[in-house]
Amino acid sequence: MDIAKSSRTALVVDDEPDMLRLLQTLLAQEGYEVVAAKSSDTAIKAFERLAQPPDLLVVDVVIPGMSGPMLVDHLRTLNPDLKVLFISGYGDSRVVRQFVLEKGFHLVTKPFTIQSLRKAIDVVIKDPHALGRKGPAR
Questions:
Q1: What is the pLDDT of residues 48-67, one digit of tens each?
Q2: What is the pTM of this model?
Q3: Which of the 8 DSSP states describes residue 129?
Q4: CA angle in degrees (0–180, nearest 5) for 3-118-115
């Protein structure tokens, strides 16, 4: 196993138990140590307990507590370099357009294939612009 690959950490936030398990399993297969949370509150506590910031945050747009975009804004005050992949079943909603896509974040819409999720994770990790930015997404 690749040493660099095995030392990566992902924080996954989704309130749907089956989706959370799927994301945990997939990311573990990709070599990540996975920390899972079902709400923004538990995600913040988990983030603060980590010895190192996670390499990747995979977060649903709609979660209990603050929304996914609000959680990202909060965690980015703690780690401005946090790479983020949003997931959502509401890919065409105003909230997704305004707070995810227009800020330049990557999004995978539910339902998705394992292959499309893997590809999106790879793009986010390798994309130097995956930190979100002002202006329309490419």
A1: 999 999 999 999 999 999 99
A2: 0.86
A3: T
A4: 135
